[in-house]
Write a structure and sequence with these properties.
Mean pLDDT: 97
Distance between the termini: 42 Å
Shape: globular
Order of helices and strands: EEEEHEHHEEEHEHEHEEEEEEEEE
Strand content: 25-35%
Largest sheet: 15 strands, mixed
Number of helices: 6
Bound molecules: zinc ion
Structural class: alpha+beta
Low-confidence stretches: none
Length: 332
């Protein structure tokens, strides 16, 4: 590998200092309204002696709120005396996107979860990805990245990990998913795993756990409660925070193949025919897309390619060709 230049990001925290520090990852960003300005990404480091390191993030996509709500809260309330090891908290990873309330960055349109491994001499989003890739991920034993559906998707609340070629690593990730104890636990596959933070962490041999907790560009009381309890459970399970895992019933789901995804093939107004969490049979109509340009046109039907349960759906009332309309998962 050719030598990469150092990251331009300067942390204002010391990762090896005991106690709690609230600081920033300062990323120089020269622009019209601030010639020598910076993007100031909030970071909290909680360390108490030797032990494993957890790297926790929310706001990888800027319009997903359960993660940031749980992580700002954790940074404010966790007592270093209850910690053994280190917890690094970045509650709003793509901070420019988070401030704009958008999935991608308003500066460069960068989708953080398609920007890994990033570049130290790239766009703002690529520079943040590069810092996680080369500076933060190598410090971590367990990596937890919160997601929700954002403005365009809605999910049944689940914690998830991927099936991996390294079965020992996969088992550690699913053990952490079980500890999170969301109402649902998912064995997840990706539409396209290239450039994802998940993939970067897993290829480095890190235990990587994620969530999809609701969506629609907002949060709900129930999903925020799940996020707050779940992340403490994972930290307790990892032996980093004192106390017992608060057990709760979870239903395991599997995404057995790409047939679980259904995509719209027309623009129009979408009518959901099945609600989240409801059972579906193969061939059942999941949604109908109504043409709105004229009256008298029969709606297009989106049918389930497999039996299971509706795990995710398109959220806005209008849909475009190519949008993910529905995801069916199988209960195991
Ligand atoms: Zn996301």
């Amino acid at each position: 590998m050719s030598a990469l230049r150092p990251s331009p990001i300067a942390p204002t925290v010391d990762f090896d200092r005991d106690g709690i520090q609230h600081g920033f990852l300062r990323l120089p960003y020269s622009r019209d309204d601030s010639a020598w300005g910076s993007v100031m990404i909030p970071i909290c480091v909680i360390r108490n002696g030797k032990g494993p390191t957890a790297l926790l993030s929310g706001g990888n996509h800027g319009d997903e709120y359960e993660g940031p709500l749980a992580l700002y809260d954790l940074a404010r309330t966790l007592d270093p005396k209850d910690v053994s090891g280190t917890i690094i908290i970045v509650p709003a990873m793509n901070y420019p996107a988070f401030r704009a309330g958008t999935r991608t960055s308003p500066i460069d349109k960068g989708n953080m979860n398609r920007s890994f491994p990033g570049r130290p001499d790239g766009t703002v989003t690529e520079k943040i990805a590069d810092y996680f890739q080369r500076d933060l991920l190598p410090r971590a034993d367990i990596v937890f990245d919160f997601h929700s559906g954002g403005k365009t998707l809605d999910f049944v609340p689940f914690c998830a990990a991927h099936t991996l070629p390294d079965k020992a690593l996969e088992q550690k990730a699913f053990d952490a998913v079980a500890a999170f104890a969301a109402p649902f636990s998912m064995r997840m596959i990706e539409i396209d795993a290239v450039g994802m933070y998940d993939t970067a962490a897993e290829e480095m041999g890190k235990v990587f756990v994620s969530t999809e907790l609701g969506g629609g560009g907002t949060s709900r009381a129930q999903t925020v409660r799940i996020a707050r309890r779940g992340i403490l459970n994972v930290l307790r399970h990892a032996g980093i925070v004192e106390g017992a895992v608060e057990k709760s019933k979870t239903r395991w789901l599997d995404m057995p193949s790409g047939d679980c995804f259904s995509f719209a093939e027309d623009d129009g107004m979408i009518e959901t025919m099945v609600d989240l969490g409801e059972p579906v049979e193969e061939g059942a109509v999941l949604a109908r897309i109504h043409s709105v340009g004229r009256t008298g046109v029969a709606p297009q039907e989106i049918k389930a390619k497999m039996s299971g349960m509706l795990a995710a759906r398109h959220f806005p009332g209008l849909v475009k060709a190519g949008d993910c309309a529905a995801v069916v998962a199988v209960e195991v």
